[in-house]
Amino acid sequence: MIPPAFIQDLLARTDVVEVVGRHVQLKKAGGTLKGLCPFHGEKSPSFTVSPTRQTYHCFGCGVHGNAIGFLMEQAGLGFMDAVRDLAQQAGMTVPEDDSSPEERERARAMKERQATLSEVLAKAGEHWRKQLKVSPRAVSYLKGRGLTGEIAARFGMGYAPEGWRGLASVFPRYDDPLLAESGLVIVQGDDGPDQKRYDRFRDRIMFPIRSVQGEVIGFGGRVLDVGEPKYLNSPETPVFVKGRELYGLHEARQALRERGYALVVEGYMDVVALAQLGFPNAVATLGTACTAEHVQKLLRFTDRIVFSFDGDAAGRRAAGRALEAALPHAGDTRSVKFLFLPAEHDPDSFVREHGAAAFEACVEQAVPLSRQLLEAAREGCDLDSAEGRARMLANAKPLWSALPDGALRRQLLGELARAGALESSELQALWGGPALPRREAARPPPRSNRRALRAATSSLDRGAWLLVQRCDLWDRLDVATHELLCEVLDPHGSFFRWLDRRYHEEGPLSPQTLLAEMRAGGEGAGLADLAQRIGALHEVEVGEHAEAELRVVADRVRLDALERDLESLTAAEPLTADMLDTIRRTRQSADEIKRRLARGQTTASS
Description:
Elements (H helix, E strand, L loop, with lengths): L3 H10 L2 H6 L5 E3 L2 E4 L11 E4 L4 E4 L5 E2 L1 H9 L3 H12 L10 H33 L2 H9 L4 H6 L3 E3 L16 H5 L3 E4 L7 E4 L4 E7 L5 E8 L7 E3 L15 H11 L2 E4 L2 H9 L5 E3 L7 H7 L5 E7 L2 H14 L8 E7 L5 H8 L1 H9 L2 E2 H10 L7 H17 L4 H13 L4 H7 L16 H23 L9 H8 L5 H15 L4 H9 L7 H11 L8 H26 L5 H29 L1
Parallel strand pairs: 12-13, 12-14, 14-15
Antiparallel strand pairs: 1-2, 2-3, 3-4, 4-5, 6-9, 7-8, 9-10, 10-11, 15-16
Helix pairs in contact: 3-4, 11-12, 13-14, 15-16, 16-17, 17-18, 19-21, 19-23, 19-24, 22-23, 24-25
């Protein structure tokens, strides 16, 4: 944990004008400075920086914050990394957190190891860039694909020549363990004279994969002629996890804000070619299906995502996996669409044949997530028969259930009910009654459950109080816990969503600031009443076990949801084998949380 006092001192020593001025050309305009917003395309400056308040604000797109927030938005940094970056510039040392010396040493060693691996990868990338310049065959191949030297340089493309040990001329020790750990060299056999080492990438066009911050974390290599595999990726390493990274995201950051959406395509070459043809907002997954982490990472830069797939069976399967990844993040203010091109085209070839305007029109006409969900549920179902409609609803339930509560989820319930020849109320009852959707008005709980409901409310009040007193604790919770808390009933759900936004905009804020904003009404339902209630009920010190206590609150929310699910499942008739298996697994999860709660409560109260 970084003490709030350090954050305040850091911001006091940092000039937001200087930080922003490195990326935006600012001109004096009265008591402020103005420039073109770096987060969306504009021709007239609406982006202002206030030297007196040490904040920035754009009247066009609404972004605002302090120097830390600007670094997070502009460079794609997390809060902790942005603080460390500013602290280094200010000559300040970030205080150590309250983890054990062993944990700090492990973290330090891991960070050094990751930095070393990135240096090794960057050195190999520089070597391959030089090799591309002196390889007429590789240059001819790229020109044949319509790429210019400028676009190849922008993406740091290179060429790994033929030969088994080409990197031996780059690194003094070809047997350096870092070469194998980084995925550049393959090692076969145990230590000894029979052990073999050779370059992973040979006779391939090389695409460096960069982190959001621009560090080289891996490579993709494409064969020039025929050969398998056509694309070869680096293996996963301490710096490279395929399910988290997107090719071209570092290069596309600015374009994502200017164009207003992310275009997710299937290959490296599509990304590079589209950037040259006027679509620099394209990114690609790295030889793996789209994951929820991919979607979440993109939503840090834009609230609109368009997935582009081939129209064949493989493209439909990929779209299905992307749909599943996007559903948990498909809020009412976000747009996710699916673009299916003719079977004979990929995005590159389509733009070259039909032009950028035609492709942009296809993007605008892409299938919305709601329609894609309906199409996925209907696939293979005869909606003219009761059996086909029942199967369609069975297909749709897990997809619909993954959506966060909101207008989109509730509208889709009605559309699915109509497609299944049911009333919305009938489908809602069939799929779990008032517990789904979670923030929908429900009947008063049975008398036997009211005590549990009061206890849950009291626990959430306590969780809200803990986060008001130490909002840095929010950064210690994982994404799944964030989403869990943000989906509870208002006013607590509204509070957690509001806190999440404020924390990412400003970093740790003082309890006085947070309570003042809550009492002023804020933007969420019931924040003023909640501030009055928790202020009156919990005016006590926040102890050293605050983080453990907050996790207890989250576990109680999980347990409450599981027990409501169990109540709905056991009330259903008849109970099928699948339902019995679901009941068994749900009970196991609930029992595990109960055991964890017992341990957590002991820790929190010790």
